[in-house]
Amino acid sequence: METDLWLVIGLGNPGPGYAGNRHNAGFMVLDVLAGRAASRFRAHKSRADVVEGRLAGRRVVLAKPRSFMNESGGPVAGLRDFFKVPAERVVVVHDELDIPYGAVRLKQGGGAGGHNGLRSISRSLGTPDYLRVRFGVGRPPGRMDPAAFVLRDFSATERKELDLHVEVAADAVEMVLAEGLQAAQNAYHARTGS
């Protein structure tokens, strides 16, 4: 086991019909990180697509579970066990309703806050104490059901700056790897407004 190996998980739903959904923000960030690692995703026996490479001077495994969001925990636990990565070096990138669109927030541990992907991961890992890079998708308008909102594509207005926001979230992941959670929080919480 190499002590500096990190596991970075992007959450989303598989298949082209979900690709532009708010719920797939984690997949979008992982695609950017895979490009930075100059590698392509390949199937892994853990029911995830993975890239093994280097980012921010660290050995990383980037992974996108092939399960649906609410069953993400099985593939994540499988990857954790296969690569022998402790929870404190697992980073989960996911959409977050309680953060304004495009803002990035980082934390370690905490509850699922109604996010079924996080609930599944915490249950399967046996701990909520992994790192989270939360990509703000904002609240649904009016009385729209939050579950329906996250399964909709980003709006035309949001898409104008989506690539920039995804790049910023990818930068935040790299800073967590290179400098740790505290430094990344100081940089990105200030940058995206507290």
UniProtKB/TrEMBL annotation:
Residue numbers marked as site, Discriminates between blocked and unblocked aminoacyl-tRNA: 13
One Gene Ontology biological process: protein quality control for misfolded or incompletely synthesized proteins
Main location: cytoplasm
This protein's UniProt keywords: Cytoplasm, Hydrolase, RNA-binding, tRNA-binding
Active-site residues, Swiss-Prot/TrEMBL: 23
Broad enzyme group: hydrolase
This enzyme's EC code(s): 3.1.1.29
Site (Stabilizes the basic form of H active site to accept a proton): 95
Compartment annotation: Cytoplasm
Pfam families documented for this protein: Pept_tRNA_hydro (PF01195)
Signal peptide location: none
Record's catalysed reaction(s): an N-acyl-L-alpha-aminoacyl-tRNA + H2O = an N-acyl-L-amino acid + a tRNA + H(+)
SUPFAM superfamilies the record matches: Peptidyl-tRNA hydrolase-like
Sequence positions that bind tRNA: 18, 68, 70, 116
Database matches in CDD domains: PTH (cd00462)
Top-level taxon of origin: Bacteria
Gene Ontology MF terms in the entry: peptidyl-tRNA hydrolase activity; tRNA binding
InterPro entries named among the record's database cross-references: Pept_tRNA_hydro (IPR001328), Pept_tRNA_hydro_CS (IPR018171), Pept_tRNA_hydro_sf (IPR036416)
A GO term from the CC aspect: cytoplasm
Function (record text): Hydrolyzes ribosome-free peptidyl-tRNAs (with 1 or more amino acids incorporated), which drop off the ribosome during protein synthesis, or as a result of ribosome stalling. Catalyzes the release of premature peptidyl moieties from peptidyl-tRNA molecules trapped in stalled 50S ribosomal subunits, and thus maintains levels of free tRNAs and 50S ribosomes.
Entry's family note: Belongs to the PTH family.
PANTHER family cross-referenced by the UniProt entry: PEPTIDYL-TRNA HYDROLASE
Complex formation: Monomer.
Name this protein carries in UniProt: Peptidyl-tRNA hydrolase
Organism: Thermomonospora echinospora
